[in-house]
């Protein structure tokens, strides 16, 4: 082998005129072109130093789909970034403090938002609205200014209201694309799989995805248990299971006793959802479906009848993803009478939550 060359075989015929090795320079060039292409993939975590932000960033540091992870927080972001940047995966990590939101978000492909305050025992998610609404509005302004084409994945509560805030701000700035804005309600599906498994360990909780429709708080969370293959739960079992899924967040808030709400299971769910979005939009993987809280005009034709009867423009439902984000909002699954009662209760509460978020953004533009 010639010194300074890699012996990368291009052809197996010994007498071929085609060179059997690639010069190191050519390999370096190809590698750097690939790096340049890949390095466009910037994912920003807003609230990266928090209870969710840190483990979420850790999990996302492990995917090669991301080339640059920008950690933005009003506290500690450079420290968290320095720590994560020692992990031996390819992506670059940068930390951005309070004054550096624009720098963190510039040209981002995806912005994930777990910024804001969590619940303490006795609080509802809606009790977080007064603080979190303004935080989300300002971050949405940052998206509009710095990365108007980005996919925006909202974790901060109350999701039923924070997603409408993001959408309204982007509308005001003329950059709203409903196919790209998602409320992450994945934790409800994750809990459903786990809690069903606890009653019936014949299912594989990791591969049994449960459709959860409605929204992300209390009665707006409607798990569609009837579609899990082989389920024959009694009414009493369904009551317990449904209540546990709807109030799973409270279980964690109570157990943490003032130290916050779900962080690790949320980071797991959030990383799963973020990777799904990247696999569909960057890697072009098809057929990926998750339940997520979206603006229904993302698939206006297929949701027109539902919007007309419920007067809802936002809803969590199974969504199929494509290169542009929402590819299809799947039709509502056929519901049992039990699930239909749950859905009716969800719809009236959701209208209130959604209106509250949208009205806030309209009445309180950032000055
Ligand atoms: N969607 C879900 O299923 C789900 C699950 C769990 C928690 N949550 C919600 O996620 C949010 C975060 O929870 P947590 O436990 O990580 O809270 P946390 O307090 O531990 O972390 C929040 C982080 O946000 C940062 N922050 C505050 N204002 C900011 C701003 N303007 N810009 C950037 N960063 C800012 C804080 O400094 C903090 O580091 C809460 O609203 C919580 O209710 C949602
Ligand atoms: O319950 C909370 O406040 C956090 C989160 O929404 C959850 O479902 O765990």
Automatic annotation (TrEMBL):
Catalytic activity line of the entry: (S)-malate + NAD(+) = oxaloacetate + NADH + H(+)
Single annotated GO MF: L-malate dehydrogenase (NAD+) activity
GO cellular component, one term: cytoplasm
Keywords in alphabetical order: Membrane, NAD, Oxidoreductase, Transmembrane, Transmembrane helix, Tricarboxylic acid cycle
Signal peptide from the UniProt entry: none
Sequence ranges assigned to domain Lactate/malate dehydrogenase N-terminal in this UniProt record: 43-183
EC number in record: 1.1.1.37
Protein name: malate dehydrogenase
């Amino acid at each position: 082998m010639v010194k300074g060359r890699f012996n990368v075989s291009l052809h197996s015929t010994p007498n071929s005129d085609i060179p059997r090795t690639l010069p190191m320079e050519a390999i370096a060039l190809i590698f750097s072109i690939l790096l340049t292409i890949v390095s466009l993939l910037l994912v920003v975590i807003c609230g990266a130093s928090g209870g969710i932000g840190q483990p979420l960033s850790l999990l996302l540091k492990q995917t090669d789909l991301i080339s640059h992870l920008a950690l933005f927080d009003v506290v500690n972001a450079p420290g968290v970034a320095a720590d994560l940047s020692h992990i031996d995966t390819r992506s670059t990590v940068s930390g951005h403090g309070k004054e550096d939101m624009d720098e963190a978000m510039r040209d981002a492909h995806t912005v994930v938002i777990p910024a804001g305050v969590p619940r303490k025992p006795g609080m509802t998610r809606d009790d977080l609205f007064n603080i979190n609404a303004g935080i989300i509005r300002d971050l949405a302004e940052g998206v509009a200014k710095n990365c108007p084409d980005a996919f925006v994945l909202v974790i901060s509560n109350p999701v039923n209201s924070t997603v409408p805030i993001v959408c309204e701000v982007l509308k005001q700035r003329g950059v709203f694309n409903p196919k790209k804005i998602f409320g992450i309600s994945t934790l409800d599906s994750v809990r459903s799989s786990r809690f069903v498994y606890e009653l019936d360990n014949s299912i594989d909780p990791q591969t049994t995805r449960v459709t959860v429709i409605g929204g992300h708080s209390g009665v707006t969370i409607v798990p569609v248990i009837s579609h899990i293959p082989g389920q024959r739960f009694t009414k009493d079992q369904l009551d317990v299971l449904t209540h546990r899924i709807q109030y799973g967040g409270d279980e964690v808030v109570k157990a943490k006793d003032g130290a916050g709400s779900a962080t690790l299971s949320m980071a797991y769910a959030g990383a799963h959802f973020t990777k799904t979005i990247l696999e569909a939009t960057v890697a072009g993987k098809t057929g990926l479906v998750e339940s997520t809280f979206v603006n229904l005009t993302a698939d206006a034709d297929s949701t027109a009848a539902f919007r007309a009867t419920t007067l809802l423009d936002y809803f969590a439902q199974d969504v199929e993803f494509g290169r542009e984000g929402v590819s299809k909002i799947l039709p509502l699954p056929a519901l049992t009478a039990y699930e239909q009662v749950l859905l009716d209760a969800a719809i009236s509460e959701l209208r209130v939550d959604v209106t509250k978020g949208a009205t806030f953004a309209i009445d309180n533009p950032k000055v």
